[in-house]
Amino acid sequence: MDSAVIRIIRSWFVVAMTTLVVVLVGVSAPPAVAxxxxxxxxxxxxxxxxxxxxxxxxxxxxxxCTLGVIAGDPxxxxxxxxxxxxxxxxxxxxxSVAEKPDTQRTLGTxxxxxxxxxxxxxxxxxxxxxxxxxxxAFAPGTPIASFKIGGRYPVRAVLKDRKDVPYGTEVCKYGMxxxxxxxxxxxxxKYTITAQLRTVHGDSGAPLYRKNxxxxxxxxxxxxxxNEDSRTTKFFWIAPVLEALNLEACGCGxx
Length: 255
Known about the structure:
Number of strands: 19
Radius of gyration: 17 Å
Helix content: under 10%
Number of helices: 1
Structural class: mainly beta
Low-confidence stretches: 1-31
Distance between the termini: 7 Å
Shape: globular
Mean pLDDT: 86
């Protein structure tokens, strides 16, 4: 059974926190929902959840992003999370669960990150030269609420060929701020995919996917930046990142 998502209007990342307003969004909820400050899942972490890091030198100043993918190393069975590389500010990555949204939990730490040619964490040869991706090693015992995108869509395949997403293909993203939004592909290039769909600050790292009729999804990329003038979002392909680290996207399991 797919997990419900609890969206918190005022999260524990807001310094002047007053009252927590909680909205329960069921699996059957329509894709278009109001923007929120935070998304957490019951019992653990899932693709589409909010993640955060304290900014260097900031007193309770947190940078928030979206966890895009949960991936596994088939040889060691260790789990990793993939977000946008520019989300890496150093230090532990935090998350929360829906049952205790105001309680910080440690998800893990970045072991590799790159932001469009600049290495932030790890060796230069760990990730593709041109990407915006960060890989988080999960802390031991991190509970998994779901491997499915947004707790809804099992990952059937990972797309890596531009021919799979030609102009006009409908794709979707699931961000921790704006939820699921969908729109057509404008262009699929060597390193990036540009789609006309809505994202907002905090959705960085959100998974890009193509939905299938059987309820699964084909994973494509992770959100990097938005062009407000053209109302388009740029995503980087996820396949080169998975291949570089010999990881496999999780999503076909029971949860």
